């Protein structure tokens, strides 16, 4: 576990250092201030489908929007969406341009030094995609010279394969549709990536008997990020998120956007009941 996190740790630490040298944290809007303004401002990445995506009306839509809109509704305020990208989402929280941010906000120790996190809303599972005719039981079984891995050129799992599965052959392709097609056509045996995002590609090869290894390589817990020390807002968001887990809203919206159930229960996080 935590292999990918180790590989990207240097990048995250560098990003944290940049944040520390950047604009000083502005005063965060407390829960009372959010309620008084009658709006909750949430940053969402519109280029991260299906979490965030522009719809045919050129409006930001997706799983993150559905969840944020419901949270705002339960607060009794309107939702204001601010488009953010991966590099600017944490700076937007720190500078108080937004009250909270989504977009696969994985809780890491480095990020937790500069922002606070709600309890997890969803998970992302790093694991192995293969086909049912393959004999592999554990991901370490792939470290064999007879195994041909396929990965997307430049993707984070490439380094994991090179360092942890050095005996395996490695086929690098330029995009996810091509990589999944290589598996479907038998030109590769397995692929490591975040499995939650694979369904849109595997569904295009309905004749293939796909298999996702049951034991994950890693599990990422993703919640909302809020400004450091904004306890009143974080605690209220936590209560709402827990209610949305309890009543099935989050599971319902996940299946709507991802085409199947979440692969790992976010309530299993050690931070869920803290």
Summarize the structure.
The chain is α+β, with helices and mostly antiparallel strands and 274 residues long. 34% of the residues lie in helices and 24% in strands.
What value does the Rg take, in angstroms?
20 Å
Tell me about the biggest sheet? 8 strands, mixed
Q: How many individual β-strands?
A: 13
Shape: elongated
Structural class: alpha+beta
Known CATH architecture of the largest domain: 3-Layer(aba) Sandwich
Oligomer: single chain
Order of helices and strands: HHEEEEHEHEEEEHEHEHEEHH
The rounded distance between the terminal residues' Cα atoms is 22 Å
Strand content: 15-25%
On the 0 to 100 scale, the average pLDDT is 91
Instruction: Give the count of structural domains.
Output: 2
What would CATH call the class of the largest domain? Alpha Beta
The CATH fourth-level homologous superfamily of the largest domain = Periplasmic binding protein-like II
CATH fold-type name of the largest domain:
D-Maltodextrin-Binding Protein, domain 2
- Residue share in helices? 25-40%
Give start-end ranges of low-pLDDT stretches.
5-23
Count of DSSP-assigned helices: 9
